[in-house]
Every structure is written in C-alpha cells, then in structure tokens.
C-alpha cells in the first residue's frame, strides 16, 4: 500500500520547501518531492534558487565587489593596495560552502517539522477517491497518494533554439557561475536581471563585457528615471550595453564564440568573445509532470493557470511560484507557499501582488515596489513625485557610495504611496520600508514624519517622501 499524505509538494525550491514547512506547522502530514542533484551528484534541496541561482550568484557578486573595492575604491580612503589577485577556486569554494550550508538548513527544517523528503521526480499518474496518485521515480520507484497537491516546480533558463548551451563556451546562468578562468572578453545576450548581475561579476574580476539586448529600451520594467541612472552607472563602470540588436548567426569553437548581429541602426556587426552567457529569460518547469493524467494542462506559454488564490481548475491542486502568472521571484513564491498552506487549513490569507518588491543586485543595487511613473500616467492617475539623491546624504558620502536616488510617487489627492524606486547601495534593504508603508496604505507624509536615524542611507527615503510635497530639508 502506498504512503498517503495530507499534502504533497512537488519541488523543494523557495516556494516548495516553504509550503511544506508551513503545511507541517499547521498539523498536516506532508511530503516534498525533489530530485535536484548538485555537481557532485548528491541530492539537494533548495531548487534553482539555492543551488544555481539567487544564493550562489549573490555570493559571487559579494566576492567580486570586494575585489573591485580593493582595486579601485580603497585609495579614496587613504588605503594603498597593489598586486591584488583573485583565486577563483577559493571564491567558488566559498560560494559552494554557502550553498551547502543553506541546502543543509532546509534538510534540517524538514526533519524538525517531520516532513518526508521523497527523493525522485514527481509525476501524476491519476486520481482516485483517496486523492491524487503521484509516482516518484528515483533510485527506486514508488507511488504516493496526496489529498492536496502543491505544484512548485520552478523554472529553467530559456535557451535560443539555434544556439546550444554547453556551459563551457556558451553558458546559461548555471554555467556562468562556474567559470574556471576570467574570460578576457565576455559577451552576454540579454540585459535583464541575470545578465546584468552575472555580467557585473565577471567585469569586476577583469573581463571586458559586452551586453546585447533585443529591446530598444534599457530595463523597460523599471521607472524611466531609474533605468536612465542605472544605464549611466553601468556604462561608467565599463559595461558595454547595446540595445535594439537582432542576433544573427552564432559560431562557436573550442576557444571562443563569434556573434553576428544587427545594431539598432541596421548595421551588421560581429562580436568576438572568449565566452558567451545566454540570459534571455526563464520558462516554467511544467513538462513531464503527467498533468494530462489528471486532466490538467499548461497554457500556451507553459504556465499552469490558477486563480487569485493559486488554485488550479482541479479540486485540491494548487500551483505556486515560477510555474504560475506573476513575477518569477523567490520571495513571491514563498508568499504564495504560505498562503496556499493556510488556504488548505481553512484560513483566508491575502497577497497584494502590487506590494511585492523587485531587486537587481548590481552595484548600485536597483529596487522598487508598486508602479512606475510611466505606468501611472498611462492609467491617467494624477500623481506627485519626490526624488532625492544619495550625493546629498552624509552616510552615502562616508561609505563612498553617492550614486543613485530614491523616488517616491504618491496620489496627488490622497497622498497614498503608489510606488517607490531606488538606485543605491543597499537598495535591497531600503525597499523594505516602502513595502511596509504600501501594505498599510501609508501616505508619503507618513514616511516624511517618521524619525529616521542620522546618519543613515534611510534618510534619503524620508527626504524623497518630503520632496513629494516639495518640502525636502536637505535639497
């Protein structure tokens, strides 16, 4: 007789493992199916995010930023450094150690909360009165029964049909985290979050980086003022960003890659590089799940259709994270995970998707929540906006990070905060104040009247809120 569980979660990434933990906290018997294997062939929890995504990339970003500070920013502090070198093997070992600690932490949480880890690939095989039958194919194959199922299988890198990825010369995000040498010339197709972050890592370590982007505008999803400032800062650092290009034939050899493309003016160009990173988005992992065996099918884009509460068209089957509509963000998946577990328990949680923050971990960082000025104007909304630069902030000057600004957008009549956009060091932390404010439907005046520590970067958030009412103090 197969094992039976109240809740079975397919996938143990940020959405899946959080769903499993919360469901277990609520008293359900829970199993989580995961078949991820690390480069050593060991089964590991955490999915893409912890193993080859968010966590290792941020570790490399931090290491490369330290290297850049030593080489290019120490002198301003009166610190003379010469001959600094990089040990890539040691840098990767540090990154891998962090990943192992984090994935091991999830395994501890599973044991603590009595969650069964089913090691294998999960696939629906049918439904019966007791629940959904799921086959788990690993070293051995078993079938379990789930009264409720949460699909949290995440996403994978989108590849270009005519450009095979070997993760040596041509890499996706996984291969770009494991370069064994710093390429002299690095090409990146795609100026999105991943392309900018990975391009920044290898530029800091010495690569000459050129980014090719098909869209005619830079970071089109961000506020126009943010995109303009970010592009200026990245180009100042040495990233070469070419917009509006059309990729043609890509030729690879054992020693490099040659990319033919048409620039935005229609001119034929060729870019030769040692290595190429393909970063053109991600696609949901909905193949080979046996969805057809229970009467469920992904839509034309490969996503699983769900309602506002992550319910599919089938009873007791939910889907969260990268396999459903909305931003492909780990923290979005985590919030949906908690909500679905609580819905199964009969509670009534709520997620305000407009209050989910976005972050790009470049230097300076880029973070925002809510709507952009261009979006609000397209909606015909009457708004007011306040902007304040970090160049006028004592703490920013003290840490030699004067780049960027905070922009607060509020309703012109009610003063409700509609969006906050930040380009700065530590933007990923500063944005949290804005998220809290928007969740509580705060006005810009509410932030303006709250005492912020001095000197601190957070003072700029307050000054931007004051500026929305044309009463900034330090400008």
Automatic annotation (TrEMBL):
Binding site for FAD: 58, 122, 153-155, 322, 328-331
Compartments it resides in: Cytoplasm
Pfam families: Pyr_redox_2, Pyr_redox_dim
UniProt keyword tRNA-binding, yes or no: no
Keywords in alphabetical order: Cytoplasm, Disulfide bond, FAD, Flavoprotein, NAD, Nucleotide-binding, Oxidoreductase, Redox-active center
Reaction it catalyzes: N(6)-[(R)-dihydrolipoyl]-L-lysyl-[protein] + NAD(+) = N(6)-[(R)-lipoyl]-L-lysyl-[protein] + NADH + H(+)
Record PANTHER family: DIHYDROLIPOYL DEHYDROGENASE, DISULFIDE OXIDOREDUCTASE
Similarity comment: Belongs to the class-I pyridine nucleotide-disulfide oxidoreductase family.
Listed name of the protein: Dihydrolipoyl dehydrogenase
Organism: Chitinasiproducens palmae
């Amino acid at each position: 007789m197969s094992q039976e569980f109240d809740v079975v979660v397919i996938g143990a990434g940020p959405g899946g493992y959080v769903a499993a933990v919360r469901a277990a906290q609520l008293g359900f018997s829970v199993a989580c199916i995961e078949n991820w294997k690390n480069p050593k062939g060991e089964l590991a929890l955490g999915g893409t995010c912890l193993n080859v995504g968010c966590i290792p990339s941020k570790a490399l970003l931090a290491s490369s930023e330290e290297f850049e500070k030593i080489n290019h920013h120490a002198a301003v502090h009166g610190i003379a450094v010469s001959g600094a070198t990089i040990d890539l093997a040691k840098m990767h070992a540090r990154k891998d150690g962090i990943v192992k600690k984090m994935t091991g932490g999830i395994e501890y949480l599973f044991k603590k909360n009595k969650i069964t880890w089913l090691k294998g690939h999960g696939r629906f095989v049918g439904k019966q009165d007791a629940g959904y039958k799921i086959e788990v194919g690993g070293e051995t194959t078993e079938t379990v029964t789930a009264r409720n199922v949460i699909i949290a299988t995440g996403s994978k890198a989108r590849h270009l049909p005519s450009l095979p990825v070997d993760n040596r010369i041509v890499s996706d995000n996984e291969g770009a985290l494991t370069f064994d040498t710093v390429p002299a010339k690095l090409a990146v197709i795609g100026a999105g979050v991943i392309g900018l972050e990975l391009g920044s890592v290898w530029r800091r370590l010495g690569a000459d980086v050129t980014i090719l982007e098909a869209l005619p505008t830079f970071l089109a999803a961000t506020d126009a003022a943010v995109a303009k400032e970010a592009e200026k800062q990245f180009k100042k650092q040495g990233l070469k960003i070419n917009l509006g290009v059309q990729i043609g034939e890509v030729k690879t050899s054992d020693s490099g890659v040659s990319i033919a493309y048409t620039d935005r003016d229609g001119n034929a160009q060729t870019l030769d590089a040692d290595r190429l990173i393909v970063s053109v988005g991600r696609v949901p992992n909905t193949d080979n799940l046996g969805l057809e065996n229970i009467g469920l099918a992904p839509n034309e884009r490969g996503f699983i259709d769900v309602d506002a509460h992550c319910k599919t068209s089938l009873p007791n089957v939910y889907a969260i994270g990268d396999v459903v509509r909305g931003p492909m963000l780990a923290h979005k998946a985590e919030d949906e995970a908690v909500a679905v577990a609580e819905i199964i328990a009969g509670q009534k949680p709520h997620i305000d998707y407009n209050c989910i923050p976005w972050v790009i971990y470049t230097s300076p960082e880029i973070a925002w929540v809510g709507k952009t000025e261009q979006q609000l104007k397209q909606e015909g909304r009457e708004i007011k906006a306040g902007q304040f630069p970090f160049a006028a902030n004592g703490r920013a000057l003290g840490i030699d990070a004067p780049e960027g600004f905070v922009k607060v957008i509020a309703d012109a009549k009610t003063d409700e905060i509609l969006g906050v956009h930040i380009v700065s060091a530590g933007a990923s932390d500063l944005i949290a104040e804005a998220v809290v404010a928007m969740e509580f439907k705060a006005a810009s005046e509410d932030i303006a009247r709250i005492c912020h520590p001095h000197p601190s970067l957070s003072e700029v958030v307050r000054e931007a809120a004051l500026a929305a009412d044309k009463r900034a103090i330090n400008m």
